[in-house]
Amino acid sequence: MAIGICFVIATGGIDLSIGTVLTMSGLVAGYLSVNMGFPIWLVIIICILIGTAFGVVNGLLVAKMGLPPFIATLGTMMLSKGIGSIITGAQSVTWKSGSDPEGWYRAIFKIKTESGLLIPTGFIFLIAAAIVMAVVMNKTKAGRYILSLGSNKEATRLSGVNVDKYLIIAYIISGTFAGIAGLAYSTIYSTLLPGGGSRI
To answer: Which residues pair with 192 in a beta bridge?
Structure first.
């Protein structure tokens, strides 16, 4: 989540919804797996896409409708909390355990060796993602434009940059990483509770 929201903060905005989007992504994806029988590979994709979808909504609210980021993302924070509770019937959701044939996904973020040693592979992915996104922010056109929005949005607009486009991209990145964080959280902590994430 920290990696994704860096792009939003770089534009001079904020995303209050990432914590609840994390929880909702894990809740809905887990519900589809356990209660609806969706295959785990599809559930993983859905979990990330839910976060991305909220990023798109946040970006459109801020860039196209002109809402202040605080107000827009406060609204989607409440919306994501409600959706998660409605879909799961306000019940907690427990993803499939490692003993289940479809519990292989847990090895993505944590590997337990035969000797009982836990290898936090999620930390390795975190470092790799941070390096990649640092390059994106500092060495690509999109990253430089996103940084320029936070420095002087109007000057960036007058320079011919499509400000709305790069604002939306920043929020999409934030939402996508919130979805990935939801997957990671569900992998490490088996049970998710509706309405959580407001204080993350």
So the answer is: 93
pLDDT in tens, 75-133: 999 999 888 888 888 888 877 766 666 667 777 777 777 777 777 788 888 999 999 99
Q: d(Cα 49, Cα 69) in Å, to the nearest integer?
A: 21
Instruction: Give the domain ranges of the chain.
Output: 2-192
Residue 121, number of CB atoms within 10 A of its CB: 14
Residue 195: strand, helix, or coil? coil
Size of the chain, expressed as the number of residues it contains:
200
In order of 10, 13, 33, 86, 104, the CA distances from 28 in angstroms are 30, 27, 9, 10, 19
Judge contact between 173 and 20, C-beta under 8 A.
Answer: no
pTM of the model: 0.89
Instruction: Considering only residues 176 and 198, tell me which one the structure prediction assigns the higher pLDDT.
Output: 176
